[in-house]
Amino acid sequence: MSRIRARVTVVGAAALTFALAAPPLVAAEPGAPAPVTVEEARLDRAVPQEILRRSGFDTVAPEFAGALGHVRTYQQAERAVVRHASSLWDRAVDRAQGRGPVRGDLSRDDDRPLYWARLAMTRELRQWEDGFGLTTGQRDRLVDRLERASRGQDSMNLPAGKGVKRIVMTGFDPFTLDRDIRISNPSGATALALDGTWIRTADGPARIETAVFPVRWQDFADGTVERTLRKQLPKADLFTTVSQGRVGRIDIERTNGAWRGGFGDNLNVSRTETVPVSDPATQPQWTTTTLPYAAIVAAKTGPFPVFDNTAVTEIPAGSTTPVARPDGPTPGSTARAGGGGDYLSNEIAYRATLLRDRLGLKIPGGHVHTPVLQFDAANTTEITDPVFVKNRLEIIAQVREIIRVAADAS
After folding, report:
1. In-domain check, residue 3
2. Which residues does the chain have with pLDDT short of 70?
3. What is the mean pLDDT of the chain?
């Protein structure tokens, strides 16, 4: 389904040991297939194949491979990549929002078919024997185009004109897949459920546009967040980055820190360092939410308790030892964790709010941490169950209501 078609408003919709950095991929010679990634290699397991089959998304990669088989030039390859990747994003959004035929028996709110189908496509693209001398750089650019188009990153369509509010929301892929490969990410599911939808606020209608981001340190260092949001935030009236956080609660993260804590990403790569950004000489240690957190916490938005989370971990000025602070950072301190921790949840919040500040924008924006999406306690093997689906639908609905409250208060 095309994104230009009118959309309807959605009515309802770890403990892991630090992973060692994976060895770099071997550079491919011009015309030679590239090696698959750690993330793509997980496709061969039974659970991803079952998710693809039971959602009807198992046809996505074979259809894409068939299209590549007719390509004879780089320009043709680029067109095929963008067409099929954009179609995947639209199909996932349509499925989440109840449009189109039902394929398979997985609930429509499931974000995992998009994730695994995208990986199946990027693997096809890396292994494609093109026949016309595709260079390593060209293949990398095609993978980048596929990633961006299949995540909604290059197709946000905030409406112009007066009388309407414009809202940007972002989610994430599933992660910690080596702990439990069945995992889903409610922030990604929420992004699919809300993309292109309208909500009614006290000041009139508001349009929500969304995108999903990878759980990979290098993509963030390469500027994927800034590249996606730089053109959108000046047009927006409100933005919120969203990710999966703690069990049984929602947190509005007050402060974000400029530190990467080393937790392994979806490539099993670890990074422990200051968050790498452009112009590091002017980089602050902390950024702050401008979401109306008091109004959000006070509102009845859904079944999960909502907290204004002010905690951080810092190295105080003049010290070398990290200290946990329940009420935010002290002057001159060095960040070691924001309210949202020291992983990519904190980093996307840091990058988005830093971009807001560097652009001189006064709009409300910040991070929302959802509850952890859990299976029924008795389910240790099946890819879905009624508790799992109910939990995800409740999170989607509550995040949507939090966005509405934030828009009203702003």
Report:
1. no
2. 1-31
3. 93
Residues 181 and 298 in one domain: yes
SS (H, E, C) the chain: CCCCCCCCCCCCCCCCCCCCCCCCCCCCCCCCCCCCCHHHHHHHCHHHHHHHHHHCHHHHHHHHHHHHCCCCCHHHHHHHHHHHHHHHHHHHHHHHCCCCCCCCCCCCCCCHHHHHHHHHHHHHHHHCCCCCCCCHHHHHHHHHHHHHHHCCCCCCCCCCCCCCEEEEEEEECCCCCCCCCCCCCHHHHHHHHHCCEEEEECCEEEEEEEEEECCCHHHHHCCHHHHHHCCCHHHCCEEEEEEECCCCCEEEECEEECEEECCCCCCCCCCEEECCCCCHHHCCCEEECCCCHHHHHHCCCCCCCEEEECCEEEECCCCCCCEEECCCCCCCCEEEEECCECCHHHHHHHHHHHHHHHCCCCCCEEEEEECCCCCCCCCCCCCCCHHHHHHHHHHHHHHHHHHHHHHHHC
Give me the pLDDT at residue 31, please: 58
**Domain, as residue range, for 59:** 38-150
What pLDDT score was predicted for residue 30? 56
CATH number at residue 327: 3.40.630.20
